[in-house]
Specification:
It is built from twelve helices and no strands. By secondary structure, the chain is mostly helical.
Length: 319
C-alpha cells in the first residue's frame, strides 16, 4: 500500500513538472530567431497576401499567449499538432523515427554500462595499483571526449582509411524500400550500428567506471566488510555478494539518469552518422523552424525522463 501511494504521489507531482517544461520550451522555441515561413516558402517570391494567408493557416498571426493556450488544449487531447514541413501529424513522425533512436540508445547504454561496471569493479578491487590508475585515466578520457569529434575520428579511421564499417545511414542502398525485415537486413543494420554505438557509448563509459569505482571503494571500506573478511569469506564473494549488492541502487539510478540524458548525445551522433532517428529529427526541425515537431519531441523527452526516473525510484524502493 505504501509503494502504491508513493507511485501515485510521484505521478501527481510529475504532471505540473511536465507542464512547466512544456511552457518553457514553448516560449523558448517561439522567441528564437527565425521564421518558419522562410523555410516553407523557400527562395521563391510570394506576395504579402499569400504570406499573410500562410501565417493565418499555421496560426502564426495570433499572439504568443493565445498560441500557447491553443497548443496546451491540443496537447491535453493528445494532439501534438501538424508538422510544418511534412504536413502530417507530429506523433506519426515521432513514432516513425523512435525505433532507430531506441536501438541506438539501448545498444550504446547496454555495452557501455556492462563494460563500465566491470572495469569499475576491477579498479575498486585493485585500488591504488596500476590497473586502477589505468581505469581512472580511461574514465577521464571518456567523459572529456566531445561526441561530434569522436564520431568524425571513427569515420575517418574505420570508414575512410580502413574501410571496415559503413559511415552513414541505417541501411545499405540495396535494402532501401524493402517492405519486410529479413535476416540480411538485420545484419546490415547491426553493421551500420557499430560506429554510432561506439561513439555514443564511449562518451558514457567513463561515468560508469568512475561511479562504480567510487561507490565500491567507499563500500569496501565499511566495518561490515572487515568483519566479513574476518569470518574467512573470499574477497570475490564479499565484493559481489555484499559490496556490489549494496551499491546496486545507485548504479541503477545512474543508468536511469543516463537513459534520460542520452538523447542529447544521440542528436550529435545521429547527425554525424546520418542515423534516421529522433536526434537527427530535432536537428533538422530546428533548422526548418518546425515548431510542432520540436515541441512534440521535447514533450516526448520530458515524459520519458520523468517515467524513467519514476521506474528507477520504484526499483530502488523494492530493492
Amino acid at each position: 500500500m505504501g509503494l502504491a501511494r508513493y507511485f501515485v504521489k510521484r505521478i501527481l507531482f510529475s504532471i505540473p513538472l511536465i507542464l512547466i517544461i512544456i511552457t518553457i520550451n514553448f516560449i523558448l522555441v517561439h522567441i528564437a530567431p527565425g521564421d518558419p515561413l522562410s523555410y516553407i516558402v523557400g527562395t521563391e517570391y510570394v506576395s504579402p497576401e499569400y504570406l499573410q494567408k500562410l501565417r493565418s493557416e499555421y496560426g502564426l498571426d495570433k499572439p504568443l499567449w493565445e498560441r500557447y493556450f491553443i497548443y496546451i488544449s491540443k496537447v491535453l487531447q493528445l494532439d501534438l499538432g501538424i508538422s510544418y514541413r511534412f504536413r502530417v501529424p507530429v506523433i506519426n513522425i515521432i513514432l516513425e523515427r523512435l525505433p532507430a533512436t531506441l536501438l541506438l540508445m539501448l545498444v550504446s547504454i547496454g555495452w557501455s554500462s556492462a563494460v563500465g561496471v566491470l572495469i569499475g569493479v576491477r579498479a575498486a578491487k585493485s585500488y591504488g595499483r596500476a590497473s586502477d590508475k589505468l581505469a581512472s585515466t580511461l574514465a577521464s578520457i571518456s567523459v572529456s571526449i566531445p561526441t561530434f569529434w569522436l564520431g568524425i575520428i571513427l569515420i575517418i579511421v574505420f570508414g575512410v582509411m580502413l574501410r571496415l564499417t559503413p559511415t552513414q545511414g541505417m541501411l545499405s542502398p540495396n535494402f532501401m524500400g524493402a517492405r519486410q525485415l529479413t535476416p540480411e537486413m538485420m545484419i546490415d543494420i547491426l553493421w551500420h550500428l557499430i560506429l554510432p554505438t561506439l561513439t555514443l557509448g564511449t562518451v558514457y563509459l567513463g561515468t560508469y567506471i568512475r561511479s562504480v569505482r567510487s561507490l565500491l571503494i567507499d563500500e569496501l571500506g565499511k566495518e561490515y566488510i572487515f568483519f566479513a573478511h574476518a569470518k574467512g569469506l573470499g574477497s570475490s564473494y564479499i565484493l559481489w555478494r555484499y559490496a556490489f549488492r549494496a551499491v546496486s541502487p545507485s548504479i541503477i539510478a545512474l543508468l536511469g539518469l543516463n537513459l534520460g540524458t542520452m538523447l542529447a548525445g544521440a542528436t550529435l551522433t545521429e547527425t554525424v552518422f546520418a542515423w534516421p532517428g529522433m536526434g537527427r529529427l530535432i536537428y533538422e526541425s530546428a533548422i526548418a523552424r518546425d515548431y510542432p515537431v520540436i515541441l512534440g519531441i521535447f514533450i516526448f523527452i520530458a515524459i520519458s525522463v520523468v517515467l524513467t526516473n519514476l521506474i528507477v525510484d520504484i526499483i530502488n524502493a523494492i530493492l
